[in-house]
């Protein structure tokens, strides 16, 4: 049986992280992806990338309307294996942390939490004020993994894609998905980086 992974793209900057995740997931025959796009995400795709909205949608197996609160993803009886919100805007984080499910993206995240499935929030904002931090702490208390896209450099990235893929690979680790998206610490170099 295929793993069902929900990918939510919200209206924060950094929508390329979500697109790149979808590209990698599309190459995994053992994964079925369910995509939810907010209006803000659609805007950022046009502003920040060279992708057309339809190209992004084609990367997913199933695309859900964010306004459809009767979608399969709105019910815990529809089994999934976890959810990425990548990027996660502060507005979406607030909806999740406060269980204010006025759209499918937040409702699906709420269902994932209540069913004790992995929820990974790639929160994109800087600097952070105390309200942002409190929302992240609340979501973490409910079971979400807060994973801001903070680049690492131990894998010797040579391109922007390498930087994106290290974050995406760490997200995939949390979902139990096998990948070779980055060189792990200790692979191919000694502790001095040689």
UniProtKB/TrEMBL annotation:
What does the record give as EC number? 2.5.1.129
The residue ranges of the Flavoprotein domain are 3-174
Entry's SUPFAM superfamilies? Homo-oligomeric flavin-containing Cys decarboxylases, HFCD
Per UniProt, FMN binds at: 11-13, 38, 89-92, 124
Q: Which UniProt keywords apply?
A: Flavoprotein, FMN, Prenyltransferase, Transferase
- Catalyzed reactions: dimethylallyl phosphate + FMNH2 = prenylated FMNH2 + phosphate
Spell out the Gene3D superfamilies in the cross-references: Flavin prenyltransferase-like (3.40.50.1950)
Q: What's an example of a GO molecular-function annotation for this chain?
A: flavin prenyltransferase activity
Q: Which domain of life is it from?
A: Bacteria
- InterPro entries documented for this protein: Flavin_trans-like, Flavoprotein, UbiX-like
Q: Which residues bind dimethylallyl phosphate?
A: 154, 170
**Entry keyword Ion transport:** no
Biological role: Flavin prenyltransferase that catalyzes the synthesis of the prenylated FMN cofactor (prenyl-FMN) for 4-hydroxy-3-polyprenylbenzoic acid decarboxylase UbiD. The prenyltransferase is metal-independent and links a dimethylallyl moiety from dimethylallyl monophosphate (DMAP) to the flavin N5 and C6 atoms of FMN.
Annotated family: Belongs to the UbiX/PAD1 family.
The protein's name is Flavin prenyltransferase UbiX
Source organism (scientific name): Parahaliea mediterranea
Q: Which gene encodes it?
A: ubiX
């Amino acid at each position: 049986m295929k793993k069902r992974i929900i990918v939510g793209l919200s209206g924060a900057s950094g929508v390329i992280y979500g697109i790149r995740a979808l590209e990698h997931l599309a190459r995994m025959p053992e994964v079925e992806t369910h995509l939810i796009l907010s209006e803000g995400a659609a805007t950022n795709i046009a502003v920040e990338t060279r992708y057309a909205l339809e190209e992004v949608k084609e990367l997913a197996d199933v695309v859900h309307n964010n306004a459809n609160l009767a979608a399969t993803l709105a019910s815990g009886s529809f089994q999934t294996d976890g959810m990425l919100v990548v990027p996660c805007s502060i507005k979406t984080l607030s909806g999740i942390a406060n269980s204010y499910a006025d759209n499918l993206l937040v409702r699906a995240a709420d269902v994932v939490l209540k069913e004790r499935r992995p929820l990974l929030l790639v929160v994109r904002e800087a600097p952070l004020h105390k309200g942002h931090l409190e929302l992240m702490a609340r979501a973490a208390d409910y079971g979400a993994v807060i994973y801001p896209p903070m680049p690492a450099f131990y894998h010797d990235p040579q391109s922007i894609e390498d930087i994106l893929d290290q974050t995406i690979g760490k997200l995939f680790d949390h979902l139990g998905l096998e990948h070779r998206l980055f060189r792990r610490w200790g692979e191919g170099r000694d502790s001095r980086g040689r």
